Amino acid sequence: MVGAKDIEMAKRFYDAIFSHMPLDEQGVDKFERPFYRQGKQRFIITHPINGQPATAANGSTIGFELGSCEAVYAWHQAGVTHGGSSAESAPYVREDGKCVAYLRDPTGNKLCAFYQTQG
């Protein structure tokens, strides 16, 4: 679950990046929060329940494993195109063979997509 300052903007961003992942379901729950489900995992966008403004967590990163390096690059591009920003560096393949990309969503939450290309 991530907090968002603007739910509609966040939904457009997450719709775009999740289009590069196999989802079992997506929609809006009984509390009017957009959600995305893959197996038993659920990802929900919400305003903070304490009524305070949404802020990005300091030191937190939410990671998603994708099915190919191409999907990682497309995920990153979709995020940047839909209101997010690149975090750290452009997508790349590390020495250990892991293809990685980092984004910040429109609220500033840090996200990572990865795919292990070898070993």
TrEMBL record:
<dbReference type="InterPro" id="IPR037523">
    <property type="entry name" value="VOC_core"/>
</dbReference>
<dbReference type="InterPro" id="IPR029068">
    <property type="entry name" value="Glyas_Bleomycin-R_OHBP_Dase"/>
</dbReference>
<protein>
    <recommendedName>
        <fullName>VOC domain-containing protein</fullName>
    </recommendedName>
</protein>
<feature type="domain" description="VOC">
    <location>
        <begin position="1"/>
        <end position="116"/>
    </location>
</feature>
